[in-house]
Here is the input.
Amino acid sequence: MISFDQLYFAADMQKPGVPVAVAGGADPTVLEAVLAATERGWIRPVVIGDETAIRRVAERHFEDWKVSPIIDTQEPAARAVEEVKNGRAKMIMKGQIATPTLMKAVLHPHLGLRTGRVICQIVLMEIAPDKRRFLLADTGICIQPTLEQKIDILKNSVEVARALETALPRVALIAATETVAESMPETVEAAEITRCHQAAALGPCLVHGPLSFDLAYSPGAGDKKQVHNPVVGTADILIFPNLLAANLTVKAIMYTANCRFGGILCGAACPVVFMSRADSTKTRLNSLALALKWLAHRNVENLPKE
Here is the structure.
């Protein structure tokens, strides 16, 4: 799986200038990321929100703000979705706006960006000391996904992994234990998804579960527990049983490990650069670089086959 350095290099070389609707721009880290990505040729942004507040932040933190136009509105999420629906933007970037507000606009049954796929957050995590990179899902949207939704989240994650140049992603279905137990329904569902994969229903990937986090991450844990299969210790994708487990895990890693990370929403009609309002400029740029790679992959995949 390619690194953030490689994602940045690709975006710098291609300079795709993708039109991006930035929902909620009255924040210095949002504007700084938008400025940096624009100067590098990655995006052509329109910043959406309260124009007075956006200009106040821009004037306070930047000497000369002339990067992008501003759309003045009290409903930046709905307007960002409208920009995509009307073809004026190819991506949305979540700025200083609450997740429920953005998702209400994205999931609107008539005006939103539904595609029939489960919409989920996928985070690319890079642990520097261990030279490990992997995806985690769903870390931000589905509170208690059903079996069918977990399978769709898995498929979304595999597609992102393939965009990151991992031809045969190894998928770990995370639980508290590797033992199937009726008292822990997530282990039963993990085993069922593994059976679905064995029946060739999930496409080009390797799937195993249930697996505890240590077994998915560390080869040494597999040796000690005497658990051996192609996913143990080498997982490219970690699929979690619910939002609680996923969100706690990803934020614990973010705030305690020597790592880099970025996140996007998949399953909608366009990529959405999607991380916490508390995240840094660097994390927003990481997420943009990831989204650009995903968008480029989608565009290639959708080309007519000769």
In short: The mean pLDDT is 92. The chain has eleven helices and eleven strands.
